[in-house]
């Protein structure tokens, strides 16, 4: 398997492939273990297995050890934005049903073991949040954020077959994958150091391509510095309350968010009328975390956007990956086709769709409500601030894209440590995503361990903290040069 | 929502949109209910909900009613090839973990709560079945059969960017969706009445397009009439045993299978050398059901095929949709790209991937082994024969594509009945897929109800049985003209 570059294999040997290129864009680091070394082989049962019970005992042992490992890994889990704090005991009674929402959520197929009634309830909730009428939206619960992006960009391409895809360099990799899959021309836009799209560069590139429609991936919302203005008027009726909501998402690594209003303004300035662009809003990480701020620019279908997707397993917390995709109904009619086999339209990317995920989402949304989410968001933001302050106090360069609760900091110099805490890294930076299950206690545990390790890495000056000013700005960098 | 054609809405009114076109290809029938009428709304909790417990009680009530409906729907379930006979009690302890096999199964990402060791065990099992060495294959567990087809065809396109996609008219609709998504030229091939690809038409169309490489979707295996030759030499060692296996799959509606060897022969005859074609084998429904026959032509990577996909939730039985995709490692290296965020390659269609499905598959494969699957296949084939014979005895036109255990018969004249039994229909035909959970008792119940209903449909000659000869051949049709 020399095709699979691996950094550390189980016997502890290091097998590194690091290609460093002057151009930051081309810097590739491939980490990870070749899992064949830890594969759980499937073997044919012995003829007498049913009698002896050996096999059952073996499998029970494997599962018990696996559960122990999961518990341990779940405990040390900081780098990925998954809320692991959920309790779905009430749903375990449904686990043994083969629930499949084949095809379109709004048209019942003949396969009756589905959960469309839950799915549509969840979709309605999101459509209401983003101000699109029930009879004007279409959507579905996807397998993951990538499927939402693939779907949104595909709609854009079907609406504008000759359109060019514009996306900031910090966009999720699935956006560039979509361009390749769909054979679309793709223009990468620079970012500010915050990770936010550079709208001047965006406009310049639009002006170079005025003859073709624009399909834009926007990492939704706006990067805001006044992060504690979370006073939500709970006494207001729900409809009014929703009007004050905003959705803000983050790019994958830095947790920064693009300014949707500015993007639309630049499109206008470059002479693109509304019938010549399509905006897909990728709310992957924080689409559900950030709506709880007043006076922030809103993500709403009252603005000229085409689709919004969020991940369901991230802030909501769900034992399986899933996402929500909402778009305008008239677009989907262009995309879909009739498939008699299913007695349904074919407007989704996947055919068979997991019917358990909608029930998990429905259960959580119903139980927590907006109020419950708001409390959790506040806690996360408080904890993220605490964490960032503690890092800086300890002399470690760090930045908080405040509303995303993502703390970006100097990449630890030991890959084993990175893996132990499951940090997502890019170049010289790592990030911790403070989710509801990341308590002050867990952050302290991490900090103590980091400081201890750091003392050994930098002992006797044998190594130096990385400069991360190009990622987080000079004022947030604490390398030898900038501190 | 007048964009959503619906046949029956909850108040019982009928709102039919049936466009019948002389050309069979263009006959569209869109069934199904608009689910907004049965949506379970998500509402904001009252301030005192936590005190009163009203909300918990409401939700428990919804879930209890839903469970009752699922039980009922699972009982009346004949048309879709899902084995609903499984017991995963031992795995319920893992339900509350957020298990995510982000990215590539063979490279551990920094996100540690995964099940790659199970996934690779399952993939090894399938690679062994299809005779591809561990260090020569790549694969992953997909969300469904559609993802496998999207992946296989994408590899084909990346290997042959100018290639034309060839697929029989009876291929799964996801194959044609792929062509559209990927902007590939697509040529539809006629089928024989069995549903098998018409290789003469295939060759003729190859000859018309000799200047471009060919990417072929093959519904794997061969349509065989001698279906009880299932004597597997259990005394042989496993390696020898596997050499006698064959995989045969079915097209979606008729359960027929294409003749892989003949497809390869036609490619040769049309002057396509092995470096000018790519074959994706879609084993959606029966890829795991049919390997247990000796002397049948085999699906094996020793033949010039590029990828094989099967569904995991169908014959195996799994509470969530999933599938298995296996391809040659050298192809995937062309497809993948390095994504530092994940510390992994990006060779899968989806990013986040459900980590529970591999554990379900691993558990079942380990428990049943080849022997267990063989017993179930035998039972299904016996029951399918029984069912087809009973239909014909009762004067109902029917056909059994023997090795697929799919019985095709005259479409019932009452859509309510079709929905009650969850039959998949196309034009004038319906099908029942005899899976391990479809017992003789259940088939009898269905037959009795069908005969009772039929007596009323055809009472006083007010309606006539459909002619289905174009679908099943004259000898299997029992309409007024052909009986």
Automatic annotation (TrEMBL), chains A, B:
GO terms for biological process: carboxylic acid metabolic process. Its cofactor is pyridoxal 5'-phosphate. GO terms for molecular function: carboxy-lyase activity; pyridoxal phosphate binding. The modification N6-(pyridoxal phosphate)lysine is found at residue 314. The keyword Lyase applies. Keywords: Decarboxylase, Lyase, Pyridoxal phosphate. It holds the Pfam family Pyridoxal_deC. PROSITE patterns: DDC_GAD_HDC_YDC (PS00392). Belongs to the group II decarboxylase family. PANTHER family: PTHR46101, SERINE DECARBOXYLASE (PTHR46101:SF21). This is Serine decarboxylase. It comes from Vigna mungo.
């Amino acid at each position: 398997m020399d095709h699979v570059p691996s950094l550390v294999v189980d016997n502890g040997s290091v097998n590194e492939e690091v290609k460093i290129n002057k151009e930051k864009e081309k810097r590739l680091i491939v980490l990870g273990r070749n899992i064949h070394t830890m594969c759980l082989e499937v073997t044919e049962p012995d003829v007498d297995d049913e009698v002896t019970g050996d096999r059952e005992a073996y499998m029970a042992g494997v599962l018990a050890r696996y559960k122990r490992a999961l518990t341990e890994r779940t405990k040390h889990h900081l780098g990925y934005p998954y809320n692991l704090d959920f309790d779905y005991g009430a749903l375990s009674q449904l686990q043994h049903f083969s629930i499949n929402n084949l095809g379109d959520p709004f048209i019942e197929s003949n396969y009756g073991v589905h959960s469309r009634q839950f799915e549509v309830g969840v979709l309605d909730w999101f459509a209401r949040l983003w101000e699109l009428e029930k009879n004007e939206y279409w959507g579905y619960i996807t397998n993951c954020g990538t499927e939402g992006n693939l779907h949104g960009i595909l709609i854009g391409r079907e609406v504008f077959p000759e359109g060019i895809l514009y996306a900031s360099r910090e966009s999720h990799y699935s956006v560039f994958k979509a361009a390749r899959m769909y054979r679309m021309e793709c223009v990468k836009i620079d970012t500010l150091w915050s990770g936010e799209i550079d709208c001047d560069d965006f406009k310049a590139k639009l002006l170079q391509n005025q003859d073709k429609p624009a399909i834009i991936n926007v990492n939704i919302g706006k990067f805001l510095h006044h992060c504690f203005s979370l006073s939500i008027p709970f006494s207001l009726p729900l409809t009014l309350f929703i009007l004050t909501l905003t959705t803000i998402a983050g790019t994958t690594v830095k947790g920064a968010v693009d300014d949707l209003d500015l993007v639309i303004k630049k499109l206008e300035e470059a002479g693109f009328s509304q019938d010549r662009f399509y905006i897909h809003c990728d709310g992957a990480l924080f689409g559900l975390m950030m709506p709880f701020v007043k006076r922030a620019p809103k993500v709403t279908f009252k603005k000229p956007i085409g689709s919004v997707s969020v991940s369901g397993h991230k802030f909501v917390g769900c034992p399986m990956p899933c996402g929500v995709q909402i778009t305008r109904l008239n677009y989907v009619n262009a995309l879909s086709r009739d498939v008699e086999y299913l007695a349904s339209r074919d407007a989704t990317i996947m055919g068979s769709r997991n019917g358990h995920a909608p029930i998990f989402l429905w259960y959580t949304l119903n139980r927590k409500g907006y109020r419950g989410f708001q409390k959790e968001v506040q806690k996360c933001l408080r904890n993220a601030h605490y964490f960032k302050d503690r890092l800086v106090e300890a002399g470690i360069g760090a930045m908080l894209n405040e509303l995303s609760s993502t703390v970006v900091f100097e990449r630890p110099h030991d890959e084993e440590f990175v893996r132990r805490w499951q940090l997502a890294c890019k170049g010289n930076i790592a990030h911790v995503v403070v989710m509801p299950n990341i308590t002050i206690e867990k952050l302290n545990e991490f900090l103590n361990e980091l400081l201890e390790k750091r003392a050994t890495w930098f002992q006797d000056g044998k190594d130096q903290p990385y400069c991360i000013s190009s990622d987080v700005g000079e004022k947030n960098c604490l390398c030898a040069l900038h501190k």
